[in-house]
Hints:
The complex is a heterodimer.
Chain A: H1 2-15, H2 23-43, H3 47-56, E1 72-73, H4 87-93, H5 97-105, E2 107-117, E3 120-131, H6 134-137, E4 146-156, H7 168-171, E5 176-181, E6 197-203, E7 206-213, E8 224-229, E9 239-241, E10 248-250, E11 258-262, H8 272-286, H9 306-318, H10 330-334, E12 338-347, E13 354-360, E14 366-372, H11 374-378, E15 384-391, E16 395-403, E17 409-417
Parallel strand pairs in A: 1-6
Antiparallel strand pairs in A: 2-3, 3-4, 4-7, 5-8, 6-7, 8-11, 9-10, 12-17, 13-14, 15-16, 16-17
Chain B: H1 3-24, H2 28-44, H3 55-69, H4 71-77, H5 83-91, H6 101-120, H7 123-134, H8 139-146, H9 150-170
Helix pairs in contact in B: 1-2, 1-3, 1-7, 2-3, 5-6, 6-9, 7-9, 8-9
Amino acid sequence: MRKEKEMELMMQKALASEIAPDESLNKKIIREWEKKRASNLADNPGCRKEVKNMGKRKIGFIAAAAAVFVLAVSSTAAVAAVKYLTKDEIVTGMENNAAEKAFQEGESLELDESLEAGDYRFNLYGVTTEEELIKSGFKEDMEREGGTYVVLSIERLNGEPMPDTSSDAYNNLHFFISPLIQGLEPWQYNMASMGGGHSTMVKDGVLYRMIQCDDIALFADRQIYLCITDTDFYETAAYNYNESDGTITRNEYYEGINLLMELPIDKKRADEKKAQEYLEKLKKSWEPDTEEIVAGENGIVSTDCRVLDEIILKEREKDLSITTLDDIPLEILLGYAELLEDSKQEVTAGENGIVEFAYKYSDGSVSEVTGFLGDEFLEGKTDVVLLGSAYSEDDAEFWVARRDESGKIICMVYLINE
Amino acid sequence: MTRQEFIDLLEREGTGVFSFCRMLAGSKEEAEELYQETMLMATERLSYIDCTKNPKSFLISLCVGIYKNNRKKAARRQRIAPVGELTEELSSVLADEGETPEEAYLRRETAEIIRMETKKLPEHLRIPVYLYYTAQLSVEEIGKMMHIPKGTVKSRLHKARILIKKKLEDYGYEEGKRNGAHDAKSACF
């Protein structure tokens, strides 16, 4: 086992690399892309719509690791006198049941704070935190345990309406609004890493945004902040992080929007134990998969398919060098299998020796495989080649191509089960 | 996709994808071609770059597809990798702290052998090795990408490691000695 680990480490050291492309190469690629894009736009004006739709997707980057809900509500024309929506109207307008429920039943905090920066005014309406709520709005496998919602509005100081969420101009608006927590490095712990997402709507020229993230109220015994920058991601240059006491402050020399306000979440909601558990879980989710791939005590590398593992063990009894399924010659492996006669089908090799083959099972379902015949088969060194395989715990299927006496290529399916 | 979004994509994923291309392709020039083709093709398939999923995995998968499609062309040009050039590029990022010059030399030699022998592996072993160690994808992601079961990925990685270990032993690498305390001269090729 120690030897396996040592080899694993050496492979990692030798092959894990961080080689950045030359800047000139990236510039060249951008030029190529621009040329291509310009030509596409000229050839097909309809693709403008596609470009616009894709632009919206950037909202999702804010919550790269989590589900994001994005709601686009068309704005009405700007009117001279703006009637602001109330917090409840905003939450209802977002059409997010979990958020509505959170604001109705959770520990909601009314805020009436207004801050100005750059060309904008930001009004903070409220924040609410509730456990076990976000879960209901997401797929079961999301394992969400709670949530914090913050509602705010953004408007232009010169009175010009904020752009509609479906417009190109909206795509050029960049705001990163995120809770930050004292004692947690802000570049590491923010909306993007803590299950964040946001919903946006524009009404009467005012942009309303509701942001959500994991339940940060667990950290209420520390200072919780809300940061706002005019960037897509957390901007390290915008804030200072004090390593000794974990406080976060604005960088006064930063050129751009870098607002920071304190979120007065009820300290009673703090739960040190749960907060610690949450952090451990979060950190674990960032770790690369370091699953160890080694032979087990029986000397073989398991396929996670019982019947195949038994075959490997049987073959290992005859030849100790066999440790994996790939070590077993194909014809010997197929000797354990049943050929599904009705699967036989003549195929023609395409470019690069690619063959396509489909098999219809008795239940009507169809499996398709596209495989490479490989150089050895094409050069006549072998007349049988494995195109693909699929295993479950109990059985395994192998899609095989054979060359018959007349030179025809016949694809077929073999089945191994208990 | 706006120009800025494309620039962001290159900045965010460029190094990961290029590192993979650099290992997979035979030379820097081929790696640059593969990288360019991958990134440009990615823009045509943007609907697959779902921000809630894994853009890196998608880009690497695209890269493997392009590599395989070009493999005939590549085969004509393929030569045993200029690993010296690659080692030079990697030397700064692979340095260990507190090692003696001799240890550093041996480490580089061992890494060079591993990289060279990996390049000689058959494709069905080589690609999973790069996906796992260089692109640092999980066994599950590799399985999905290559349309093979997780167990097969595991066994191929295991097999590749055994083959490379054997080669290291041929070069005089001894088990348990840090960075391979083999006769340095025997590794000069």
